[in-house]
Each structure stands twice: as C-alpha cells, then as structure tokens.
C-alpha cells in the first residue's frame, strides 16, 4: 500500500463539538483561548481539532505531540504561511516573506550580536536604562506594571538593537510609530492582513517612516565612520552568502523583526514574573539574599553576576511556565501530516499551545501551583522531556533571543527589587486574551516605596 493510500485510511483528529457553522469556535477562542484549548485536551488528549473561521485548526499538546509538530519540516508545517500578518510590518523579502533558507540566513546575521562579549555590554546598558527609568519614579506611588515594563523594554530594545542615536529620539516620534505598527497585529490580520482598514493604513505609513528614520542613522554612521555596539552595527557589516550587503530596507526589516519578536514578549514576561512573585512573597527571600550577595556592595552588572542569580532565574522560568507570553504558536499544513492514528490534512492549520502543555501534571506535578523550586537542581521538571517547556518554542523556529530576554528580565528585577518595596494593588491579575502577546489585564497596578538606601535590604 502506498503512503497516500495509508493516509486516506487514517482518521481526522477528533473534533471539538459545538460552535457555529463556518465560524466555528471563533468567539470562544477570542474570549478565552486557553479555556477552549484546555477543554479540548481534557476531552480528547494530545491531538484534537476545532473549526476557526472556516479553517480547521489542529492542536498539539504534550511532549510527544509537540515533538512531532516541531520536527516537521517547513514544507509540511509552514511558519511562513501562518505568519503572513507580519509581512506588512517586517517588510517584503524579510523573515516570513522569503524562503525558509533565506530567513534562516537572515536570522544568522544576528548571531554575532548575541555573542558573549556583546551580551556583557548589553548587561551594562540594560542596567543603565533600568536605573535611569526607575530614577523617574517618586518616593512612593502606584504604577501600571505592564505599562512601565513596556516603556522600559522599548528603551532597552532600542538602545541595544538600534543604538544610542535612535534611543535619544525614542521619547518623541518612535512610540507613536511603534504603536501604529502594533495595531496591525490582531486576529483579523491573521486572516486578512491587507484589508483597507484605517489601522492597517496607519501600520503601513508607520513602517515607511521607520525605514526613513533608521536609514538616516545608517547614512550618518557610514559618513562619519561611527561604529556602534548594537544589532544595527552587526547588520550593517553582514553579507548574504553571494556577497551582497544588506540594503537599508533589509536592515530595517530585520531590526523590526527583532523588536517585534522581543520587546512586548519581554515586557510581558517581566510583568508576570513580578506579579507572581509579589503574590507569593515567600519566594522573594532567596532572591533578595542573592541580590545582597552579588550586587549588594555596588558591584557592576555583568554576565557573571547575572549567572549567579539562580533564585531569580527560577522565578522567571516559573512565570514562563504559568504565563507564557505566547500562548500558541501556529503553522499552516502544506502536506498531510500523520500523527499516531491520525492524518492532519494539507490546507488546515496547526498549533502548539504552551499555556496548555505547561499544565500537564505528569510533567509539572500540581501544575496550577506557583513553585519556582520545581526548576531547582534535583527536580528540574522541565528536563523530563525535550518539548516540555515551550515558552520560547522548539525545533528549527526556536527563539534566538531567549538569553537576551532572560538577561533583560533579570536586570530589570534586580534593579527594581534593590531599590523598592513593592505591593500588589488588585486582588487578582487575570490574563488579557485580547492581545497577541498575553499580559495581565490593565490596569495592572502595583504600589512602590523607595528603600532608604539603594543597595541595602
Ligand atoms: C520573553 C521574551 C520572548 C519570548 C517569550 C519569545 C518567544 C518566542 C517563541 C515562542 C518563538 C517561536 C515561534 C514559533 O515557533 O512560531 C520565538 C521565535 C523567535 N524569537 Fe523570540 N521570544 C522572546 C524574546 C525574543 C528576543 C529578545 C528576540 C530577539 C532579540 C527574539 C527573536 C525571535 C526570532 C527572530 C524568532 C523566530 C525564529 C525562527 O522562526 O526561526 N525573541 N520567540
């Protein structure tokens, strides 16, 4: 029997009952995607499908199914086809608007910007930005934590990615442009990114202006022979395999790709890290002790110091598990995919769902419980299987910025916790599923009081 005949003998995955004709479960999916996905897992196990605006979406959960998903080649499960909504933002010929081979060459240009000596430099830059930002807070008050983390991570990202010249202008035009670009990311854009809507027109105008701004910096650097210590510099000196240098539009596109992949996600992870810690203050004690030990005598922020902050790292990992900023990762099925007794048909969509996979009790016992120590030496629950913890994806499209992101969140909380006593204002901080990157619903207020001396506890 041929493989094609075998496939036709295989079943479609079980389908979630209910939903509207054609639209399927779109309204519940918009309102509470994690509830819907968890229900499917509880009812059918590691693979099931549901109808979403005319397309069948197959959901993979659990290490074995996740592995099948992440190991499928790009010409079978395509990220490019699923993420077309990013093309108007990242640009033509960039990332998901090119072949997987060229995309991987483009992302490869970034690796020198993530080497140890660069990360060392970023550690200091991140600390300087965080200190300057928190200097603007008063003696005591209330802040929206997500808003604050968003502002600060835009400063950090623009400084480390695009450089000092750009960073100086961030407070003026950039936040507006960035907001307009972000306005192009929603469920509608996932299906129809080019509709003539005002929000999509604003997105397109903002991108044109962004290319102008970054091109000016590139031109100035080239004419004055200035060399930066940022991602921009790395891209300015990069070449494709055939020897061609990157055009200004290519450079801007890649910077926007990194900015979009890394800024909001880092802000959200930083916010959940703080909220969960403040909800479970007993876990602050070891964090403050290691802060005292490694930074308490005015030591400089460095990679070496950051590596010692293991209790803080565990709390970030637990935030990644319980509140992954990306709750689902998508692919388009280009060729039939077999999994166990099932065949997932070409033309449909497929996803993995970190928010559900992270709550499987066989991997993470007592999964609803906040317990950063589940990652301590000897327990290391995330190592029970390769595709257990998925906050940064897996396989060939795994995040390239994880080290940078963890470093950033560690620096931010090191500065905050050394300077302030913090308390939550609300009883509950629930996830806001209306945005692509899932932070807490706003306002997400915390109150702060400055400590008498910045380095004492
Ligand atoms: C907390 C912060 C971050 C989170 C939670 C996160 C999460 C992820 C996830 C889940 C993926 C896989 C997407 C998929 O398979 O569909 C991914 C890919 C990616 N991330 Fe991140 N990321 C973060 C920060 C960053 C940063 C700081 C950068 C850049 C400096 C970055 C750059 C990228 C890129 C370029 C990809 C695409 C890789 C590919 O498709 O080959 N990310 N990220």
Task: Kindly describe this structure.
The chain has 457 residues and is of the alpha+beta class. The chain has a 5-stranded mixed sheet with strand order 1-2-8-5-3. It has a 3-stranded antiparallel sheet with strand order 4-10-9. The chain is built from 20 helices and 10 strands. 50% of the residues lie in helices and 10% in strands. The termini are far apart. It has a single domain, classed as Cytochrome p450. Helix 9 runs antiparallel to helix 15 (248-279) and helix 15 packs across helix 18. The radius of gyration is 22 Å and the shape is globular. The structure holds protoporphyrin IX containing FE. Protoporphyrin IX containing FE binds next to helix 15 and helix 20.
- Counting structural domains, the number is 1
**Computed Rg:** 22 Å
What's the end-to-end separation, in Å?
71 Å
Measured by DSSP, the beta-strand proportion falls in 5-15%
In DSSP terms, counting alpha (H) and pi (I) runs of 4 or more, how many helices?
20
CATH class category name: Mainly Alpha
What's the CATH topology name?
Cytochrome p450
> What global shape is seen?
globular
Beta strand count: 10
List keywords for this structure.
457 residues; binds protoporphyrin IX containing FE; 20 helices; 10 strands; alpha+beta; five-stranded mixed sheet; Cytochrome p450
